[in-house]
Amino acid sequence: MPEQAAFNGLHAVIAEDSQHMRTLLRSMLRALGFGQVAAESNGEDALRLISSGWADVVLLDWNMPGLSGIDVFRAIRAFPEPICRVPVMIVTAHASPQRLKLSKSLGVNSFLCKPVSVKALESRLLKIVSEPYAAINGDSAPSAMGTKKPGPEHSIEDDPLKSSSTDEKDDELENFYV
């Protein structure tokens, strides 16, 4: 894989309650060249590892017992610098336009639907590792991350972007999603 060097030496944390998906994602990340991959079965254990500053990239399942992927994401963004800036990808089988918009509005770096292909995973990871701030809101300046600190609690039902249907917003979400 030609892009493998981009991930050499990086540490990834996976929070996924499915043993099969943890194994699959771990294998994919190792094949892509990640130095070390930790796979946790729940958000609480993943947060303990992430809070130590060990992670360079985090992959979160949306639906997990205890803390959901979005709950873990919000906790990560509440950590002090530089931990709060770790790139985060939501990987889920339960994708919907509302969840996608909510993830984007909260500042999640990327969103990937299961089943996951190595090609799609690699493409997303390259973007969030090489341009973590651009993946959030189209700006490569480090200060851009600060604009996406967790705000008030959101639910899918009260998502602020739910009623927006402009072509520009749809294009942004399509690029975030694909």
* Topology pattern, helix = H, strand = E: EHEHEHEHEHHHH
In CATH, the architecture is 3-Layer(aba) Sandwich
CATH class: Alpha Beta
User: What radius of gyration results from the CA coordinates?
Assistant: 15 Å
Distance between the termini: 20 Å
Largest sheet: 5 strands, parallel
By DSSP (H or I, 4+ residues per run), the number of helices equals: 8
- Unreliable stretches, pLDDT < 50, 5 or more residues? 135-170
Average pLDDT confidence is: 80
Report the helical percentage: 40-55%
Task: Please describe the topology of this protein.
Elements: E1 11-15, H1 19-31, E2 36-40, H2 43-51, E3 57-60, H3 69-78, E4 88-92, H4 97-106, E5 110-113, H5 118-130, H6 132-137, H7 143-146, H8 167-177
Parallel strand pairs: 1-2, 1-3, 3-4, 4-5
Brief digest:
The chain is of the alpha/beta class.
Can you walk me through this structure?
- The chain is an alpha/beta fold and 178 residues long.
- The protein is built from 8 helices and 5 strands.
- It has a 5-stranded parallel sheet with strand order 2-1-3-4-5, sandwiched between helices.
- Helix 2 (43-51) runs parallel beside helix 3.
- The longest helix is centred in the N-terminal third of the chain and has 13 residues, at 19-31.
- It is globular and about 35 Å long.
Tags for this entry?
5-stranded parallel beta sheet; alpha/beta; Rossmann fold; 13% strand
